[in-house]
Amino acid sequence: xxxxxxxxxxxxxxxxxxxxxxxxxxxxxxxxxxxxxxxxxxxxxxxxxxxxxxxxxxxxxxxxxxxxxxxxxxxxxxxxxxxxxxxxxxxxxxxxxxxxxxxxxxxxxxxxxxxxxxxxxxxxxxxxxxxxxxxxxxxxxxxxxxxxxxxxxxxxxxxxxxxxxxxxxxxxxxxxxxxxxxxxxxxxxxxxxxxxxxxxxxxxxxxxxxxxxxxxxxxxxxxxxxxxxxxxxxxxxxxxxxxxxxxxxxxxxxxxxxxxxxxxxxxxxxxxxxxxxxxxxxxxxxxxxxxxxxxxxxxxxxxxxxxxxxxxxxxxxxxxxxxxxxxxxxxxxxxxxxxxxxxxxxxxxxxxxxxxxxxxxxxxxxxxxxxxxxxxxxxxxxxxxxxxxxxxxxxxxxxxxxxxxxxxxxxxxxxxxxxxxxxxxx
Length: 426
Fold this sequence. Notes:
Layout: E1 4-6, E2 9-11, H1 20-25, E3 36-40, E4 48-49, E5 53-54, H2 55-61, H3 63-67, H4 69-75, E6 81-86, E7 94-96, H5 100-112, E8 132-136, E9 140-146, H6 149-156, H7 162-173, H8 177-188, H9 196-212, H10 218-230, H11 236-239, E10 243-248, E11 253-256, E12 262-266, E13 269-274, E14 280-283, H12 291-297, E15 306-308, E16 311-312, E17 317-321, E18 328-333, E19 369-371, E20 377-390, E21 393-398, E22 402-405, E23 412-424
Antiparallel strand pairs: 1-22, 2-3, 3-6, 4-5, 6-13, 7-14, 8-11, 8-13, 9-10, 9-12, 11-15, 16-17, 17-18, 18-23, 19-23, 20-21, 20-22, 20-23
């Protein structure tokens, strides 16, 4: 068995775009919100191989060939990562992901309680952690991680509402992680959750100081207003004032570790993560909110968003390395792509630009290029038309198409004109 074409598993959530993913995948828009497409082997939503075979079943049938001995020893008979393309048109939930230890304990407890995997009462869908890395394909906005207590106090000061005055006092009196946890608990815990009216007063105060030109952070006030349009009265809107606003340009990346409170707002990006669907939601969603679990898992220690700078692997490939063993992601631009006149549909960085050099790589797009990497790989076309080859065969790849490369295939080469992403195990 050589390379396998993959059909990703589409997810239609209300926050998705009606056009971005259909255009990327080369399909007709049907008017629904296309939120994300999963290319992986997570049992809840696996990609499918030719003949309608689930990728998790294909791997389970021959794990030694599919995954290789090193991955098998480290992760058992499962693909340890999940690759997604995500296209939020509206904000996602305010959420956090658990550590591996907490996920395993909680998953076992819910199993012992007899909760079905698809039960609305269930919080944990598997026993794994879910660190993730997002690489922007277009300009991408988000919230991620808590500000310092003193900086958050400056943001809250002068808004003049009962709720923000209370939060401000908490942070001024205790400008530590304990003070920040108290402020966040005030917003999300069931017993202290503010009313929709109180939230609305904060939103109006943010809009008023933006109009007056007196905001200490116009960007976060704009985010508050935007969140309130989709989630009026939700305390998660006010929680945004405690968090770092993030804007990624195409090709920039951000790592989200376990415990980091975050919300994606708008844009299109590649996500690579540990193979998990454990999401603990604090607000900004019609889905289940579990404030107690969020408060158990969230880290309130002040930290800037963890941006990941790409490193050059070869003349054609750059890699984004996260501080985990589950995944890494590389982007490849084949020689001649920049001169082909094609538009850069993905927004991915130019292959040489990321290292500080300029111009396209030397060589011809007709000459096969060796692609760094080994083990089980998922290759996703971002732009153009290419041909992938291993010792056992070739496979055509275009934008929006994906291929699984078993570990036993060894060295991967590519030629043509285009760009693609490759998810793999470090």
